[in-house]
Design goal:
heterodimer; A: about 220 residues; mainly alpha; Fumarate Reductase Cytochrome B subunit; two-stranded antiparallel ribbon; B: about 550 residues; alpha+beta; nine-stranded mixed β-sheet; two-stranded antiparallel sheet; about 30% helix
Chain lengths: ~220, ~550
């Protein structure tokens, strides 16, 4: 196996990094207070937990709107276009190659920050799981206005079920996500990159299909 | 390169800090509000509603010549009252305080303690023929012909029957000592007649604090501790606070007093004085509005489903104990052939041969039910199922009922006689020569009692478990002592554990989802742990190559 040359690359802009860490704090607080409201443990006390959960939840909604604006105005949304190309190789890498010290089959580039697996996971997250969680959370928060909103056919237990299931899914994601940060060329490389914006990446050519703004050739 | 990286780092960090500060500000603001003593709107409204509460009178009854007479009997006093207050008796005769009957339904059942209704204390007044009950009837002694106005309007409480009897005995006497006594009695009677007031706590309390034959027997939230309560016991009545009389909330029209809760709601409309300045003041909303808490308070979101009393009366019987159960089936035991009594730790009778086994308790947490203001009640004419606990009275309402709220109750559990053949509850005669308290003979007491009620008795009886409810609405605690959110919103021993049919955060969960969720979380943890360990192990081998 040849050791490739490392190059330092500016991968994450200021806003991306800010958004990432803000979202981390928000989600952490929401999980903590959310599971307390759910009755899983006692920490702040029920009423305090509800208050914090509501405030932080609404903050997240507003912040997410800014993220949406950013993602579409900068064209960064293209980073989230799912693909099956090299998907198998990535899966194979994480389940086998990584143990043999092989190189990542799809190294990060400015124009292609996400590998095919990440594209799929982040798209599901940003386009489905998080919006579902935010929408169900917002409705939960507005419970007393359901009649006025004309949605009193909804029941709180259905909504609570969705919101709780979403919370478990996000918690599972976080476990894997945090672990995956250790899979860079050093254990802290990915975390460092999300703090400074700069990451050491193995040299290599980014393929045309991966580049943001480039249309994928029809299969 | 390094300096560039540093700059890239500081800006997002500052932003992050700024956002976090924003998150903390609501808490900071509310803390500041607390210090400037910002009152909840409900308190401000109530303060305004009660500001001009000073009432004045234009008649000094002690100066009326009608009341200077030498009264020989109760009805003479009443006549004196009516010589000015010409309509008072006619008005009063129509009220439930006098008739003890609420209303008659289309099946001919007469609701009310003077009618066919029963409870699980002394069970029935036997159509007011059980004279023991009439101590609380507002006539003279146990007679039911003439109103005793002074029951409710007299400030000085004296034993009228005894006083008039003694006066009769001594008034013609030549003995100077007995003459002296007679004059003293005369003076006492006149002083009592002339001390006319609007009903005060001890007037209402004489019956309502001691209903069921003793202090705190029935209600749990009404006992003699409310004659002179402090704020901690009752924020409204506390003599160190608002010092409300009963009539401050129990407003009156033509001697009909608001607040009766007997098969029909005390108030059919929930409105505040802002909406209708002539509305009764019987509901909390009357003075406090339906959103009394500070505008950002989650408590305001509860008022459509949870009664104010549910949170604001954490426990009842906070000073004096109240009776919680009464087992009539244990009555009749004797020691050495004689009836006996035993006392509990409160000094209250927990066994009486004439009454049976009883339990008393203090600082009792209420039980909670949906309640729309009406209470269903079983009469002597209603069939019962002796195989089940009979709900002699029970709150009506459900979650779907817009007028219903979750409301606190004292539930009194009884065990009382029923007719095994007719399957009805029985109303024994208790006082008097034929009464159970004299004879300890159930057969006779039940026969006489049911004859008075005009309801057949087969002669075969047994005892059945029953419940009887009292809405808890007095003894409103100071706001520092309200029921905390997590006393209901909790998985363990929630105060509302028995209320089903709706999802309540903190109390309810989907056990399958929770189990599956935590299994998945553990699975993920385990997965990444194995993956990580494998990496450490294999990478080590690779470097060794």
């Amino acid at each position: 196996m040849s050791v490739k040359k490392m190059i330092t690359m500016y991968l994450y802009t200021r806003y991306e990094r800010f958004w990432h860490w803000l979202q981390m704090v928000l989600i952490f607080v929401l999980l903590l207070t959310g599971f307390e409201v759910h009755g899983s443990f006692h920490f702040l006390g029920f009423d305090e937990a509800v208050e914090v959960h509501n405030t932080v939840g609404l903050t997240w909604l507003v912040a997410f709107a800014f993220f949406m604006f950013w993602v579409f105005t900068t064209g960064e949304w293209k980073q989230y276009i799912p693909t099956t190309k090299k998907m198998f190789q990535v899966v194979l890498y994480y389940s086998y190659g990584i143990f043999r010290g092989e190189s990542h089959p799809v190294p990060k580039r400015k124009e292609a920050k996400h590998n095919p697996l990440q594209r799929l996971v982040y798209l599901s997250l940003a386009a489905f799981l998080l919006p579902v969680q935010m929408a169900s959370g917002f409705l939960y928060w507005g419970y007393n206005s359901w009649k006025a909103w004309g949605i009193d056919w909804l029941t709180l237990d259905t909504l609570a079920f969705i919101h709780t299931a979403g919370a478990f899914a996000i918690l599972c994601f976080i476990i894997v996500h945090v672990y995956m940060t250790t899979t860079g060329h050093t254990v802290t490389a990915h975390v460092k990159a999300m703090i400074t914006g700069w990451e050491d990446v193995e040299e290599g050519e980014v393929q045309e299909w991966e580049k943001a703004g480039t249309k994928q050739p029809a299969a | 390169m390094k300096s560039t990286r540093g700059r890239h780092l500081t800006v997002p960090c500052t932003l992050l800090l700024f956002m976090l500060t924003l998150l903390c500000t609501p808490a900071a603001f509310s803390a500041a509000n607390e210090e400037t003593e910002d009152k909840a709107p409900g308190i401000t409204m109530a303060d305004q509603a009660t500001k001009e509460k000073k009432l004045w009178i234009t008649t000094d009854h002690s100066r009326l010549k009608e009341l200077q007479k030498d009264f020989r009997s109760g009805p003479e006093i009443t006549q004196a009252c009516l010589s000015c207050h010409t309509e008072a008796a006619d008005q009063f005769h129509k009220t439930i305080h006098w008739t003890w009957k609420a209303y008659t339904d289309d099946k001919g059942r007469v609701f009310g303690k003077g009618g066919d209704s029963i409870n699980n204390f002394c069970i029935s007044t036997d159509h007011m023929q059980d004279k023991g009950c009439l101590n609380c009837h507002p006539g003279w002694g146990t007679k039911t012909e003439v109103v005793n106005c002074l029951n409710c309007h007299g400030q000085k409480s004296i034993n009228w029957e005894e006083s008039f009897e003694d006066l009769e005995a001594f008034k013609e006497s030549k003995d100077p000592d007995e003459k002296e006594i007679a004059n003293e009695i005369r003076g006492n009677i006149q002083a009592a007649v002339q001390a006319v007031v609007r009903p005060e706590r001890q007037n209402c309390g004489a019956c309502h604090f001691k209903g069921g034959g003793g202090d705190g027997v029935k209600h749990g939230d009404l006992d003699t501790s409310l004659t002179k309560p402090n704020k901690a016991l009752d924020v409204h009545m506390g003599s160190d606070g608002q010092n409300f009389e009963c009539t401050r909330c129990h407003t009156t029209t033509l001697h009909n007093i608001a607040g009766r809760v007997y098969t029909k709601p005390a108030a059919t409309e929930r409105k505040s004085l802002i909406e209708d300045d002539l509305t009764t003041k019987i509901t909390c909303e009357s003075c406090h509005s339906s959103t009394p808490h500070k505008s950002d308070s989650k408590a305001n979101d509860h008022t459509d489903k949870v009664a104010c009393q549910s949170c604001h009366i954490p426990e009842f019987a906070r000073v004096n104990p109240t009776k919680m159960s009464w087992d009539w089936s244990q009555a009749g035991k004797t020691k050495d052939g004689k009836p006996y009594t035993t006392e509990d730790e409160f000094g209250k009778h927990n066994y009486m041969s004439i009454k049976g086994q009883m339990k008393w308790a203090k600082n009792v947490k209420p039980e909670y039910f949906w309640y729309n203001g009406s209470i269903s009640s079983v009469t002597v004419k209603d069939p019962i199922d002796p195989g089940q606990v009979v709900q002699v009275s029970h709150p009506l309402g459900s979650r779907d009922d817009a007028n219903a709220r979750i409301f606190p109750f004292k539930v009194h559990r009884g065990r009382q006689p029923y007719d095994k053949v007719n399957k009805t509850l029985l109303g024994p005669m208790l006082s008097g020569p034929d009464g159970y308290w004299t004879t300890l003979d159930w057969d006779h007491a039940l026969t006489v009692g049911n004859a008075a009620l005009g309801v057949p008795f087969s002669g075969e009886f047994d005892f059945v478990d029953t419940t009887y409810v009292f809405p808890i609405t007095h003894m409103v605690a100071p706001k520092e002592n309200v029921v905390a959110c997590n006393e209901c919103h909790t998985r363990d021993n929630s105060r509302l554990a028995s209320l089903a049919g709706f999802y309540m955060p903190g109390r309810d969960q989907f056990s399958l989802l929770d189990s599956l969720g935590w299994i998945l979380v553990l699975g993920h943890l385990l997965g990444v742990a194995i993956h990580g360990l494998t990496r450490m192990f294999t990478n080590g081998r690779k470097e060794g190559k």
